[in-house]
Design a protein that fits this description.
Blueprint (H helix, E strand, L loop, with lengths): L17 H18 L4 H10 L7 H17 L24 H11 L11 E6 L5 H10 L4 E3 L6 H14 L3 E6 L4 H17 L5 E7 L2 H6 L5 E2 L7 H4 L3 E2 L7 H13 L4 H31 L1
Parallel strand pairs: 1-2, 1-3, 3-4
Antiparallel strand pairs: 5-6
């Protein structure tokens, strides 16, 4: 028997009817349609918050996971609405020829938004599964997204510290992680280690989520803090909350708010104009190349 993460229920639920399953599928679809892209775990927490399923691992695996797979297999939900950043493929970028390479350069050209900015900004996230959710905003504003996957390695932090020193600018790091004993200790470790590895650098470190205030204000689903965690006593709170419990649109809003603290509207407008003109110049060059190569 599979045990529940949040404790086993004493009440045995009756089997859902086809009509109830259809209504649940519609409710899950509405959640994802409103806030995609989402991870499966985020959909689960939203379903729990709305009273659609109990907060158990059984409900997560046998109801939410199963129905989301079925919705996508049947073509009723786009696959791109659900993201999983924990699995990825390494492959070099390659092209069928110079024409394709030039076309890709034109399409993907981005002006470095922070080259002329007086500060450097990074978003740090504890969970790899949520990278696809936060990346919408970090990609939009050309900001690095640093995924730690729990406690980051010393090598990872050394590389980050060297980048901070190389830039020589005040650096603002915004951290997103679980509210639990380990989740509270990870940002402490990151900040302390970065300051040790980049002595003299101006580093501003802020934990953005999850916070006790957010738990109360947004009525986030909680779970009992694990007493077996050696840091539980120092943590001092019987509640724990996963970062996944924050709705995706709110998470993206938090990311955007952090980034926009450091970007002036007029600066953004000016950079957008420069990027547009430079892309047009690339398009002109690509056209000349195509015309020249076809005449050869």
């Amino acid at each position: 028997m599979m045990s529940a993460i949040y404790g086993t229920s004493l009440t045995k639920r009756s089997r859902r009817t086809k009509a109830e399953i259809a209504m649940l599928e519609e409710a899950l679809f509405a959640i994802v349609q409103e806030q995609h892209p989402m991870t499966v775990r985020q959909v689960f927490y939203q379903a729990v918050s709305r009273g659609l399923v109990p907060k158990t691992e059984v409900a997560y695996q046998t109801v939410v996971v199963r129905l989301l797979v079925r919705l996508r297999k049947q073509g009723r939900m786009p696959y791109g609405w659900i993201v999983d950043e924990t699995r990825w493929v390494r492959k070099p970028v390659s092209y069928t020829g110079l024409d394709a390479a030039l076309e890709h350069v034109v399409e993907c050209y981005r002006r470095d938004l922070w080259a002329e900015a007086p500060v450097h900004v990074e978003i740090w996230c504890e969970k790899e599964a949520l990278a696809g959710v936060l990346y919408e905003e970090t990609h939009r504003f050309d900001v690095p997204l640093m995924v730690t996957k729990g406690y980051p390695s010393h090598s990872f932090l050394y590389g980050a510290a060297q980048d901070i020193l190389r830039r020589g600018k005040p650096t603002f790091l915004y951290y997103f992680g679980d509210y639990d004993p380990t989740g509270k200790d990870i940002p402490r470790y990151i900040e302390t280690t970065l300051r040790e590895l980049a002595p003299g650098a101006e580093i501003h470190f802020e934990r953005v989520a999850v916070t006790p205030e957010q738990i109360t204000e947004w009525n986030l689903p909680t779970r009992p803090t694990k007493k077996t965690d050696t840091r539980a006593k120092r943590f001092g709170d019987e509640r724990s909350v996963e970062l996944d419990a924050i709705p995706p649109d709110m998470l993206r809003g938090l990311v955007q708010e952090c980034i926009l603290r450091h970007l002036d509207v007029k600066y953004l407008e000016r950079m957008a104009v420069i990027e547009y003109l430079e892309r047009k110049e690339l398009e002109r060059f690509a056209k000349l190349w195509r015309n020249g190569s076809s005449a050869m």
